[in-house]
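Whether sequence alone determines local backbone shape is best considered at the level of individual chains. Part of our work consisted of pairing the sequence of a single chain with a tokenised description of its backbone. This step matters because it turns folding into a mapping between discrete strings. For completeness, the protein is quoted in full, as a sequence line and a line of structure tokens:

_____
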Amino acid sequence: MKALASCFTSIVGTENAVCWEDVPVSQQKSILQAISDEKPLAPKGALRKRVNASPTPPGCIVYPHTTEQLAQVITQAHRNKWRVLPCGSGSKLNWGGLVKDVDVVVSTERLNQLIEHAVGDLTVTVEAGIKFSHLQEMLANSGQFLAVDPITQDTATIGGIVATADTGSLRQRYGTVRDQLLGITFVRADGQIAKAGGRVVKNVAGYDLMKLFTGSFGTLGVISQVTFRVYPMHEISQTVVLTGDPKAISQSAGVLRGSALTPTQADLLSTKLVSGLGLGEGLGLVARFQSIAESVKEQSNRLLEVGEQLGLKGTIYSAADEADLWRILREQIDSSVNESAITCKIGVLPTSAVEVLTQADVGWIHIASGLGVLRFESDNQIDQLLGIRSLCQANRGFLTILEAPVEVKQQLDVWGYTGNAEELMRRIKEQFDKECILSPGRFVGGI
């Protein structure tokens, strides 16, 4: 393993090519949760026999400091056909499928510089390893912000957010990560540096590779820089919380979707999540309004009136109380005292969201898109998961496992994909990574 690390020291320096034996135990554990040596033994959707619970660790972790160093590292891996697991800080490394036979982990965590912030043009260009929280602090100094709401805001890197399409509930007003990307620089599997898009909002040059790379989980290339559009910060913000009977909550969500109200965030919450936040009983609806003071006050009061008419408990949160509410909500979704818990990303018809939430332990679903996160913690969690997966698929949706113990991911089809584009995805993978050295096995169908 030291021999493998030494192959990269001439590129990144000794301190940036770390042998596996020298990696902190906590980091080793995180990486091993993403790796498996097992080969699929059963059709998709079926339980699979567990074969190997002790994956072979990679030889080293490499930390390039520049895009040029990153390109040289990938070139070296490609030349030797070493399999690479790209990551940022590793906060989402265990999302998606298990990667097979990894030789090298390449982290962009030290590619963390601000390249350009065009304040007047409302754009920002950064390296992929910059922390989301750090970028937001820098943008806030100019009265601006990046309109995504990832679950792990303190540790998530911008490259990781793009690679996993971790948008959050701000999609209600601003769309998804791919909608806000203007340009991207990445290193191909053969080590060549490539670019798409640009640094201005109105840019139509080249192929729209931003959409292709968003949510690709590091299987097509290693992102090194991105350009985002950003937005002015709002004058004031308030959040309305409605809790109570599931049927009434469903009706209130329907009214909100069909109204002229313009929340920036709007989500449905499961019963356990509502009680865990101390918001009341039953299911919940949280809607955040951000604009000028008069608009926010008027919209908040209108939604409260809707809740009153349906017999729901309504509360308005503002200032520090509102900030704490959204922070604790993210923490509740992301954390679990149960190490065997399974976290999933789901998508359903928005009108079926309440039906799904009534069968889940912990979960939230965006009222407009029907996308959300569920966590299963009960003893019969696999049966429960498969039941909700069937329910989602029956409602034109999906259920994908993000985080789960390795043995669970070895038993289940992580992605649960039932569409007809798998062959197309395989051809795209072959075009970008013919030798299949980048995150092998992590994407749909073991791509």
Residues 119 and 198 are 16 Å apart (CA to CA).
